Amino acid sequence: MSAPAVTRALRVLAVLEAAGGATLGVSEMARQLGVARSSLHNVCLALEAEGVVQRSEGGYRLGRRLVELGGAYLRTVDPVQAFYQACSDTSFLHNEICQLAVLDGADVLYLAAHAGRLPLRMTASIGSRFPASITAVGNALLAQLDDDELRQRFEDPVTRPAWTASSITDLEALIDKIRDVRGRGHALDEGEVFPGIRGLAVAVAPQYSGESAYAVGASLLEVYCNAHIERQAVEALSAMAAHIANPMNLGRGSAAVDA
């Protein structure tokens, strides 16, 4: 059964999210959503009363209550806590830029991000979306799907964007790349998202039937990469993945990597 008021409220939040922190008036939101200003005004008043949006000069923006709700959600996502613990306790990963992601359609959604200690600024942060076709974490997750599912999911060329000259945009080439991931056991992004950045990622084995699949990845400066560093990264990520799947694994995995 549909609930128009709830649907409209969620659409208001989506519009304010897309505004990137800018304040939007009721008239502008009504124009974007294609609804009557009067009905949208009541929705905004209800959202304001609950603290989900806040009124300021010129209109509305997202409210602080969303931070509380988001924090409550993240506290229930054990892989996020395990990810940060692994980044803290594993010396190699502690110094690197790392990500925890899930697959959402043709994109990956970042649930957690670790900045590391390298003098390198990346745009990926919690809640960021990146194309699964070109990211290492995306490729690690896509390797869990069969070729028919890949063809269906990436049939539209829009799902295979070119962010750099190295980005693979051809569908059959993408499928071949994912086959390589399955055979190799880890995903590799060679400058497909950012020039000069090598991404490595592994999938996390699900703990329960029907659980969402996760992937953990690291972004390394290509100029400093060699076979030894890449092997260390894959081993560290594999230990992290084992820790997320079962937190009792951290001591065994990290000790092997840090030795």
Features of this protein?
11 helices; six-stranded antiparallel sheet; two-stranded antiparallel ribbon; single chain; alpha+beta; 46% helix; 259 residues; 8 strands
Model regions low in confidence, pLDDT < 50 over at least 5 residues: 250-259
How many strand segments?
8
Rg, nearest Å: 21 Å
Number of H/I helices: 11
Mean pLDDT: 87
Distance between the termini: 57 Å
The chain-level structural class is alpha+beta
Q: Quote the beta fraction.
A: 15-25%
List the strand order in the largest sheet: 5-4-3-8-7-6
Write up what this structure looks like.
The termini are far apart. Residues 250-259 have low confidence and may be disordered. This protein is α+β, with helices and mostly antiparallel strands. Helix content is 46%, strand content 18%. It is globular. It has helices at 4-18, 26-33, 37-49, 65-75, 78-89, 91-94, 136-142, 147-153, 171-184, 227-245, 250-258; strands spanning 53-56, 59-62, 97-104, 107-114, 129-131, 187-190, 197-204, 214-221. Strands 5-4-3-8-7-6 form a six-stranded antiparallel β-sheet.
